[in-house]
Amino acid sequence: MKYLRDDGKAWHADGGWYSRRFTKEDLTELFAKAGLKCKIIKICPVNYIAFATKQ
User: Which residues does 37 contact at the CB level (< 8 Å), separation at least 6?
Assistant: First the structure.
């Protein structure tokens, strides 16, 4: 499992990450840079949870 980091924060073991700072496009790009595809769930207008999915 690969982990992505931003400002010293690691992605959770299950691939989920809570983000107020990134848009859906930003999260997709971050996962892509680590060689992962992701499923993104919008939980409110500005917050997303992203989960890594196996390619």
Answer: 31, 52, 53, 54, 55
Number of folded domains that form the chain: 1
Q: Print the domain residue range for 36.
A: 11-49
Query: Do 11 and 19 form a contact (C-beta atoms < 8 A)?
Result: no
Q: How distant, in Å, are the alpha carbons of 21, 48 from that of 16?
A: 15, 10
- In percent, how much of the chain has pLDDT > 70? 51
Q: Which residue has the tokens 């859906």?
A: 24
Calpha distance 29→49 (Å, rounded): 14
pTM over 0.85: no
